[in-house]
Amino acid sequence: MLSEAKHPRIWLKGNAETLRCAQGGGPSGVTLFSVTRHQQADPVSQTHLKAGLRMLELRNLTKRYNRVPAVDNLDITLEPGEVYGYLGPNGSGKSTTVKMLTGLLEPSQGHIFYQGRDIRDDLVEYRKHLGYVPEEPLLYPYMSGLEYLQLVGRLRSIPQAVLDRKVERLLDLFSLRGRRHSPISAYSKGMKQKVLVCAALMHDPDILIFDEPLSGLDVTSVLVLRGVVRSLAREGKIILYSSHILEVVEKVCSRVIILHKGRVVANENVGRLRDLMHSPSLEDVFSQLVLEEDTEQVAKEIVETMKM
Ligand SMILES: Nc1ncnc2c1ncn2[C@@H]1O[C@H](COP(=O)(O)OP(=O)(O)O)[C@@H](O)[C@H]1O
Ligand SMILES: [Mg+2]
After folding, report:
1. Is 54 exposed, middle or buried (0-12, 13-18, 19+ CB in 10 A)?
2. pLDDT tens digits along 286-307
């Protein structure tokens, strides 16, 4: 439960419209902060209540590093059953958003609601519903893949017998069985990535967040992972798939959110977005929306510089 003393304005911000209605439609501002303690004791997102859905909502979400916004006032709703491609050039704020979604970073402003509740109210509980594949394959190098997955499973409180079966099966399916006893330090980047994917899926979470999950994976694993993501969407999971690779997003995602300098410049169904921009592929859409550099020219100049 939200502590009013700690976050006096959280509930109010997320529910300005409701409050206005409740108080007879008065103007925003002063009236917003004059509700009773009783009303503030229920910090739920009204969008969630209206839709009756198990969704993830980013509301006025901002993260600043040294006063410079890396993510600026995001307003995004993620619903179950869709795969949201989170797309943008390097430095556009994808990983910063993902880190806030996983609770690793605290927003400078704004909130994230899951099932209508601010995730920061009870991060431990929220994380039980979350599977996260980070961009960096940070794993314990001296552990084997098998040991690592066993450790993660135990931390997730998966019963030992189930865990043993799950780990064996996942190692098999991701073609890691032959190397399951080798230390992770001896794994290739792709193998490490597969271990991270297994770890994220193991507790059957409701929310899955992938940050550039295909880096280092071979073709077969890419195809397997794509299939997994699509199946998870059909199962009604909430999926955010962050990547700067357009082709991948186009193949895996049903919706695409395009980020540019920390702001959302498009949030559309993939097909619709293309229609809108009269472009044959998302790549064109992307160039129209965010690409500022003349890539051909830059490439030419790099080669010329090499010859200097
Ligand atoms: N820990 C940090 N300290 C300062 N600036 C950061 C930090 N992390 C990210 N940034 C900056 O925030 C912006 C967004 O970064 P990031 O979210 O990693 O982008 P993306 O994942 O889209 O490549 C970039 O300008 C980056 O330099
Ligand atoms: Mg990133």
Report:
1. middle
2. 666 656 667 777 778 878 878 8
